[in-house]
Write a structure and sequence with these properties.
Length: about 140
């Protein structure tokens, strides 16, 4: 019975961890889609795990560096590994590189986010004012 309870406890931990994980694919999503999503996850969970395979690794590293260089995140952990996958075209197993980067909020994260929100609001106000001026002319 203890083994079952321990197994259920482990499942809960795994599910909780997955909620703050962003799996970056090699699609055409803009870089800042992932940057902004990571900020949102850090607001909610205080940390975010960025994960990628193969060619998407460069995107994950770039997202992490943008967040770190702008003062939003600190690097907590980096894990690299290889994963066995099936090659769709040849039907045989291949190994792909994998990276996982765990980022945490900096001490000034909330302050930076508030300043960013304030700047967006000022920009909206300027757009509204310029729209009103065009209507008057």
């Amino acid at each position: 019975m203890e083994e079952i309870a321990e197994g259920v406890h482990n499942i809960t931990i795994t599910e909780a961890k997955a909620k703050n994980r962003i799996q970056v694919s090699n699609t055409k999503k803009p870089l800042f889609f992932y940057v902004n999503l990571a900020k949102r996850y850090m607001q909610q969970f205080n940390e975010v795990e960025l994960s990628a395979l193969g060619m998407a690794i460069a995107t994950v590293v770039t997202v992490a560096e943008i967040l770190k260089n702008n003062g939003f995140a600190v690097e907590k952990k980096i894990m690299t590994s290889t994963v066995d996958m099936k090659d769709e075209s040849r039907g045989r197993p291949v190994q792909k590189a994998k990276i996982e980067i765990l980022l945490g909020k900096t001490a000034k994260f909330d302050e930076l986010m508030a300043a960013q929100a304030e700047e967006r609001e000022r920009e909206r106000e300027r757009e509204r004012e310029s729209g009103e001026l065009e209507v008057q002319n």
